[in-house]
């Protein structure tokens, strides 16, 4: 990642889907952000911080209001418990509703920015965020010094830029004087201030310790016993009296006692900054974000003191690291303006923070330090200093004075001036115009944050610290869990439970580890504790989901479904429970219920490939192959893991097989096999499917070759050998059939296919009794008994024993409800006996097992006999392949459409038949009858003439003419045609 993704470009006043990214190298030439209240500058600043951290660039952030500290709020899976402590409501119900809406908006806006929950988790896992507070233990307390050590290049600065050092010392002295005497006394105590500046300069020159309490002590000692003789031209005693000097010392001494003594408690700024940038990086290292929260310092002088200390310490640390062209660290202040009491005031006002910031702006670039400065008060800052910022972000500015001031500082082109004026007046929240380092101008809308955005109060910080007491262990454990290092994660969650036995989140995550390791009993115990817990850290929906998975793994499908139902009752948007419920329903052939659940899943997870894959399987089971094909295409579009692509491509090939798209199915099979080869996984099922397609094409040699490929890879595959035997039987190759059965016999002499096909060979040769004797020699209870019973039924049919045949087919279906041979022969028997309703029911069962076209063909004819023409048409509409070789199918459909008075469809089907069979009269007869229904009699007669040219001896032609003339009212001609029909019989 080399760019910082900050938002989506705005073009012609509208937000586009095109990303706006800032080159990370531009950070070292510094960034300035300005915009009125509500412009979104703080969010933009946070975006820059987040992106810097995602690029492994550590950051120091000065938080003046508490809104930057919310970067620490531990978002991970966007559950309610993560933000519950930071969203208030008028009542418990109101709070819950606000939490729900807040999270819903977060997820929606995150997706709108092209980001995912995984990005939130990666950000959290990759960063080490710390909050530091001065003079307070509300968070990690840090100590500051009223005096700072001299820059490392002190001697060089004194030669080349003495004003930098002198201003820095003067500002330190001013801060101390204001604290001790108040600002109004500054002019009357100029001698005391000058003495202090000289004392600090002396301490700089000798390299004395100036940090913390020791620095104040050394300053007092230096003033008490002055080590230099003169100040300017005057001796020290001539410059200031001993009495005034003692007054100064007594005041300095107050910095060592009382409330001011709290400044020295906690980890030193120097120690903190030393750890910011890692000089040696290891895999898995986290990037540091140090937030210095100054929101509880009400006094500007206190804030000024702290900010200056941090800036100088950071500068010294970066300089020690040496030169760098790459950004090495980021320094961010959210508000540098505000008039006289600002950190970067316009000239002639000077203060310590301004001096320190200028030092960072002028020299930080050389060491890889980038500054990001922001303000909502652009009229009150030092634009001369901001010329060092080469990237400017400008949001909405309400006043003309502010706009003019920004234009003065930006030194923009005329084009930019025009664009800027129109943009900032119309800019909404989050809309910014940028003048980049290279002078290019763009407009964009800032992206959604990966972190929670809120101004954290004192109480919020207390709650946050409490929440995160065990967060490090939770986060490390969660990271290991995400990496599937389950055994390594368990000790971290155990550590939390030792300290806090009621930690619901630790219980739940511990349960997930045990579940992944297969210790389902231990996992269930933890999830049961989660459900009994009154906390809302982990989520009961999630616990019920895992308990459902445990029940499912144990084979308790109904119990699992009950638990998944409880899960979605707790949280209607817990998607995984819908997926698992759909999988169970699909496995149990309850595909209507499966479809309801998987549809809910894909609504919640619209980009989940696995969801569309399962949906494709469900639609295929429901025989809605077009919907199945659409679903698998979506699954493949969303699938990112190439190693999982094979089953998706194979399923697409199967679906196209059922759609009758056989040539395309073969292409998809080749693609699936190529994917399997790359992934190193077997693809024998592809060859199996290919053999079925070649059978449809009557390319028997290729079908045999495909099956032999399967058998070569798995020589003991009885199913493949049985399929090969069936193929040879269908093409009447008795020699090859016998050879295949012998191969099968070597593997399993009891295989039912051996006896079934040998019996059928005997039956085909007329040896009915021998066939019956052979098939009856095998016990009915063996595997494959349904095949034997189906053949026995065929033999009984051949012997004219219909009752015995029906009984045999019935027992075959009892043994195996999916016995296709038995179901098909049973339907044929019912057809012979004209029991069409029974035939229909059996054919529907056969189709549920396997949607073969011969079943649909017979079903269509069965519906015709039941006068159910619409159902007949629907059945024939499934004959994707047969219709290519048998135009009679279209003729039948045309006749049925005539019965239903669907004229347009009748013509369409009749035309298709005529195109395929132009020398057959049937199509013209149907066309004539259809025109008659439309009262287009001349067209009808014309169709009959076409038929008569082909054959005038078919009585159906004359009966059709009689019908048309009768409809015309020409009864004489109608009777003549009837007589002609009689004569043709």
UniProtKB/TrEMBL annotation:
Show me the TPR repeat boundaries. Answer: 541-574, 786-819, 853-886, 921-954
Q: Which InterPro entries match?
A: AAA+_ATPase (IPR003593), HerA_central (IPR002789), P-loop_NTPase (IPR027417), T4SS_component (IPR051162), TPR-like_helical_dom_sf (IPR011990), TPR_rpt (IPR019734)
This protein's record includes keyword Iron: no
Q: Which domain of life is it from?
A: Bacteria
* Residue ranges of every copy of the AAA+ ATPase domain listed in the record: 27-397
Which keywords fit this entry according to its UniProt record? TPR repeat
What name does this protein carry?
Answer: AAA+ ATPase domain-containing protein
Q: Which species expresses this protein natively?
A: Candidatus Wallbacteria bacterium GWC2_49_35
What phylogenetic lineage does the species belong to?
Answer: Bacteria, Candidatus Walliibacteriota
């Amino acid at each position: 990642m080399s760019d910082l993704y900050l938002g989506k470009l705005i073009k012609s006043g509208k937000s586009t889907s095109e990303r706006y990214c800032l080159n990370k190298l531009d950070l070292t030439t510094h960034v300035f952000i300005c915009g009125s209240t509500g412009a979104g500058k703080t969010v933009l600043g946070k975006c820059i911080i987040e992106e810097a951290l995602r690029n492994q660039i550590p950051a120091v952030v000065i938080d003046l209001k508490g809104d930057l500290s919310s970067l620490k709020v531990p978002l991970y899976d966007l559950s309610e418990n993560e933000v519950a402590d930071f969203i208030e409501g008028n009542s418990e119900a109101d709070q819950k509703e606000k939490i729900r809406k807040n999270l819903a908006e977060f997820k929606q806006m995150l997706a709108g920015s092209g980001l995912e929950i995984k990005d939130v988790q990666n950000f959290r896992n990759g960063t080490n965020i710390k909050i530091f507070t001065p003079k307070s233990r509300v968070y990690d307390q840090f100590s500051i010094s009223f005096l700072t050590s001299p820059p490392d290049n002190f001697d060089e600065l004194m030669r080349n830029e003495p004003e930098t050092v002198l201003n820095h010392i003067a500002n330190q002295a001013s801060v101390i004087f204001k604290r001790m005497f108040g600002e109004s006394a500054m002019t009357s105590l100029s001698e005391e201030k000058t003495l202090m500046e000289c004392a600090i300069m002396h301490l700089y020159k000798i390299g004395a310790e100036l940090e913390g309490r020791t620095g104040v002590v050394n300053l007092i000692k230096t003033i008490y016993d002055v080590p230099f003789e003169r100040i300017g031209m005057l001796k020290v005693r001539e410059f200031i009296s001993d009495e005034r000097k003692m007054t100064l010392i007594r005041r300095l001494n107050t910095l060592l006692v009382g409330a001011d003594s709290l400044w020295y408690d906690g980890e030193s700024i120097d120690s903190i900054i030393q750890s910011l940038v890692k000089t040696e990086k290891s895999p898995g290292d986290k990037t540091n974000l140090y937030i210095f929260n100054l929101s509880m310092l009400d006094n500007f002088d206190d804030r000024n003191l702290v900010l200056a200390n941090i800036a100088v310490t950071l500068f010294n640390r970066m300089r020690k690291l040496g030169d760098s062209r790459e950004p090495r660290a980021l320094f961010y202040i959210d508000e540098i303006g505000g008039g006289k009491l600002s950190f970067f005031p316009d000239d002639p006002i000077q203060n310590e923070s301004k001096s320190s910031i200028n030092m960072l702006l002028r020299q930080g670039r050389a060491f890889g330090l980038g500054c990001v400065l922001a303000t909502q008060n652009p009229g009150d800052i030092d634009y001369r200093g901001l010329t060092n910022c080469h990237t400017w972000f400008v949001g909405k500015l309400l006043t003309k004075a502010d706009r003019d001031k920004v234009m003065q500082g930006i030194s923009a082109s005329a084009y930019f001036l025009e664009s800027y004026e129109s943009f900032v007046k119309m800019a909404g929240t989050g809309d910014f115009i940028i003048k980049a380092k290279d002078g290019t101008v763009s407009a964009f809308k800032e992206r959604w944050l990966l972190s929670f955005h809120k101004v954290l109060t004192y109480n919020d910080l207390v709650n946050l610290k409490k929440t995160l007491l065990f967060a490090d262990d939770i986060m490390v454990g969660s990271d290991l869990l995400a990496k599937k290092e389950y055994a390594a994660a368990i000790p971290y969650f155990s550590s939390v439970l030792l300290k806090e036995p009621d930690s619901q989140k630790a219980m739940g995550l511990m349960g997930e580890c045990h579940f992944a390791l297969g210790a389902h009993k231990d996992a269930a115990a933890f999830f049961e504790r989660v459900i009994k817990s009154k906390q809302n850290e982990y989520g009961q929906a999630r616990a019920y989901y895992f308990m459902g998975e445990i029940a499912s793994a144990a084979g308790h499908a109904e119990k699992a479904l009950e638990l998944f139902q409880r899960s979605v009752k707790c949280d209607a948007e817990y998607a995984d429970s819908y997926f698992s419920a759909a999988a169970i329903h699909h496995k149990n052939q309850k595909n209507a219920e499966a479809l309801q659940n998987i549809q809910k899943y894909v609504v919640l997870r619209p980009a989940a490939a696995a969801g569309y894959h399962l949906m494709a399987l469900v639609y295929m089971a429901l025989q809605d192959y077009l919907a199945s094909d659409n679903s698998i295409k979506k699954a493949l579009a969303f699938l990112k893991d190439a190693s999982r692509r094979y089953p998706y491509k194979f399923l697409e090939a199967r679906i196209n097989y059922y759609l009758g798209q056989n040539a395309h199915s073969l292409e998809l099979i080749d693609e699936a096999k190529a994917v399997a080869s790359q992934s190193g996984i077997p693809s024998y099922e592809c060859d199996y499917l290919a053999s079925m397609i070649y059978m449809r094409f009557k390319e028997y040699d290729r079908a045999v070759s495909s099956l032999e490929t399967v058998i070569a890879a798995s020589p003991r595959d009885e199913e493949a050998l049985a399929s090969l035997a069936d193929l040879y039987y269908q093409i009447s190759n008795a020699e090859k059939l016998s050879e295949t059965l012998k191969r099968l016999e070597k593997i399993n002499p009891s295989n039912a296919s051996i006896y079934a096909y040998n019996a059928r060979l005997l039956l085909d040769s007329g040896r009915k009794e021998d066939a019956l004797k052979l098939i009856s020699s095998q016990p009915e209870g063996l595997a494959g008994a349904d095949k034997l019973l189906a053949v026995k039924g065929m033999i009984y049919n051949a012997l004219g024993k219909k009752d015995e045949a029906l009984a045999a087919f019935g027992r075959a279906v009892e043994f195996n409800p999916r016995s296709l041979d038995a179901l098909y022969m049973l339907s044929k028997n019912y057809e012979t006996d004209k029991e069409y309703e029974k035939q229909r029911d059996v054919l529907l069962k056969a189709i549920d097992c396997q949607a073969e076209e011969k079943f649909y063909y017979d079903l269509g004819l069965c519906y015709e006999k039941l006068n159910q023409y619409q159902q007949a048409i629907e059945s024939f509409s499934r004959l994707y392949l047969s219709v290519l070789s048998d135009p009679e199918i279209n003729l039948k459909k045309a006749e049925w459409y005539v019965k239903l008075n669907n004229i347009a469809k009748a013509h369409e089907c009749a035309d298709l038949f005529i195109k395929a069979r132009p020398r057959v009269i049937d199509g013209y007869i149907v066309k004539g009858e259809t025109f008659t229904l439309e009262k287009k009699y001349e067209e009808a007669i014309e169709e009959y003439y076409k038929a008569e040219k082909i054959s005038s001896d078919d009585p159906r032609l004359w009966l059709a003419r009689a019908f048309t003339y009768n409809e015309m009212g020409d009864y004489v001609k109608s009777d003549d045609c009837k007589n002609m029909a009689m004569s043709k019989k």
